[in-house]
Design brief:
The structure is a homotrimer. By secondary structure, chain A is an alpha+beta fold. Helix content of chain A is 22%, strand content 43%. Chain A is built from 3 helices and 9 strands. In chain A, the strands form 2 sheets. In chain A, strands 2-9-4-6-7 form a 5-stranded antiparallel sheet, with helices on one face. A 3-stranded antiparallel sheet of chain A has the order 3-8-5. The longest helix of chain A has 14 residues, at 73-86. Chains in contact: A-B, A-C, B-C. At the B-C interface, strand 2, helix 1, helix 3 and strand 9 of B face strand 1, strand 4, strand 5, helix 2 and strand 6 of C.
Chain lengths: 156, 156, 156
């Protein structure tokens, strides 16, 4: 293994800490993935973020977050299939207040992410070449979803 | 999509950064979910947290964290069932030092969360209406579990 | 439940905030787990970290991160088996650009972690006794993987 020091900004060099918090509202079109990478990049730019990290937090228990491949759309179809197999609708769930899709949505949320953390360096998100950030809607019907974006670090 | 700037506190306006670290000890009553939301809210209040984020870190590999529905208790029963199906006891595990429940507990921990991140704004946790924070005990018997709570941000 | 205040450093006592960002490059030897705990501890030491947190972010969608037991190597074998069962190669995936192992690697990444957060107190990672941090390589062949390490907090 090897380690490269990209930046080491100790007390004297990072002269100020900024916190910026925004609410991103996404209207999903029902079960599936929505790419929100551009919105996060815009938030980083608007906040004047230089070095630190952006955290994402989704305020729901039937929709979640993931970072996945951005190139071939069939990856997202296969991921949807994989989640359906891990949490099928006909598995004899006790909780079905909002229909057969209700409990599978909670299970899928538990198996993926409610919060994510992406480092920022030189004013850029440090995502890999093939990474995009997605909201995953687990309910069959469209929903309005809220994601809290927060940058903490050096800005200017 | 639309974005609302909830708060944008740049260098000049956030005049100080606080870090507060506490250890939450939870005695689980065996396999299942324990709601720890009230303890986290108390920590945020005691720390004088204003804007930033609370991170949770569980110091175990056979218990984990999740954010899930807080309304219908049958959701938690179904989530327990779902985890049992994804990591059954009779799956021919090699590692069984602490009994048939040993390895399923590790698998369930890997599939859920060891660390969580919840934003704080105006001194309040930004949880959604239906969200609660849970410790998930994966072992059959009761255990004493440690969770590190840390706030970083502006306080006063 | 009981809560112990390990440290509560409010504005006046934490006089400076440091952010240190490094890139850890790991050459995996194909499917399986690589323990990176020592590298993270070295990063914490080199950054002069005192109180705060280290975040890890893996820049890939076919490799991921987890915190798991560090004692019995058969745990890691069983975890590999568990992931193979949850995302088998012969499940009729649509996306197979890089072979039958391609799509299972994406599913396994989605079910584990892309980012992790570990608190630091008194210059030490607050890992539990049995916890180690692992890179999980999901592809069959060896790959070069990049992990961004970032400390934010008080240093000196």
């Amino acid at each position: 293994m090897s380690m490269t020091s990209l930046s080491r900004s100790l007390s004297s060099t990072v002269s100020a800490t900024a916190i910026a918090t925004s609410l991103l509202t996404v209207q999903s079109s029902g079960r599936g993935f929505t790419d929100i990478t551009a919105e996060i990049a815009k938030f980083v730019k608007d906040a004047g973020a230089k070095e630190g990290a952006v955290t994402l937090f989704i305020r729901h228990t039937s929709a979640s977050l993931t970072i996945q491949e951005n190139a071939d759309p069939s990856v997202l179809e296969d991921l949807t299939t994989a989640l359906d197999r891990l949490a099928p609708e006909d598995a004899g769930w006790r909780h079905d207040t909002e229909g057969p899709n209700d409990m599978p949505a909670h299970v899928k949320t538990m198996l993926t992410a409610t919060s994510l953390h992406i480092p920022v360096l030189k004013s850029e998100l440090m995502l890999g070449t093939w990474q995009a950030v997605y909201l995953i809607e687990h309910r069959t019907r469209p929903h309005r979803r809220e994601i809290v974006l927060q940058f903490a670090g050096a800005s200017g």
